[in-house]
Amino acid sequence: MWNEFKKFAVRGNVIDLAVGVIIGGAFGKIVSSLVNDIIMPLVGLILGGVNFSDLSWKVGKAEVKYGAFIQTVVDFLIIAFSIFLFVKLINTLYERMKKQEEVKETAPTLTKEEELLTEIRDLLKQQRETM
Fold first, then answer.
1. Which residues pair with 58 in a beta bridge?
2. Which residues cross the membrane (predicted)?
3. With 0-12 CB in 10 A as exposed, 13-18 as middle and 19+ as buried, what is 31?
4. Is 17 helix (H, G, I), strand (E, B) or coil?
5. Beta pairing, strands 57-59 & 62-64
């Protein structure tokens, strides 16, 4: 059983997933700070000094904090948009690398003799065209 667990835990996909979760958590904190400390205060100023985190309704003894919900939705939208841009960048880079590999595979490499023969052929074509 220990060997199975060790094989599972050391497998590349699990480690990649763990790194992704840790980086995602840290990224979430950065975006939350961006929203809470920069974006929402500016939005509040534009809307006349409204602080979204304080917005709530009282229904009997219950307090519905819809301002916190609005702030969480803004967090989500910024995180989703950031991830979209990051994935788009990675896909673009991947496509460029793939095209470069295809070009390298399709372009034959010529020996020195073939290069010289190609140059001679091209020179002969030029001479025929000028005649």
1. 63
2. 12-31, 69-90
3. buried
4. helix
5. antiparallel
* Element at 56 (helix H, strand E): none
Nearest to 32 by CA among 70, 64, 78: 78
77 pLDDT more than 80: yes
Average pLDDT over residues 105-123: 85
Q: 78 near 31, Cβ under 8 Å?
A: yes
Q: How far is CA 113 from CA 108, 118, 122, in A?
A: 14, 9, 14
Nearest CA to 96 out of 108, 88, 106 is that of: 88
List the helix and strand counts (H, then E) for the chain.
Answer: 5, 2
**What single letter denotes the amino acid at residue 69?**
F
**DSSP classification of residue 73:** H
Task: Please report the pLDDT score of residue 12 as a whole number.
Answer: 65
With contact defined as beta carbons under 8 Å apart, do 71 and 40 qualify? yes
> At 61, which amino acid appears?
K
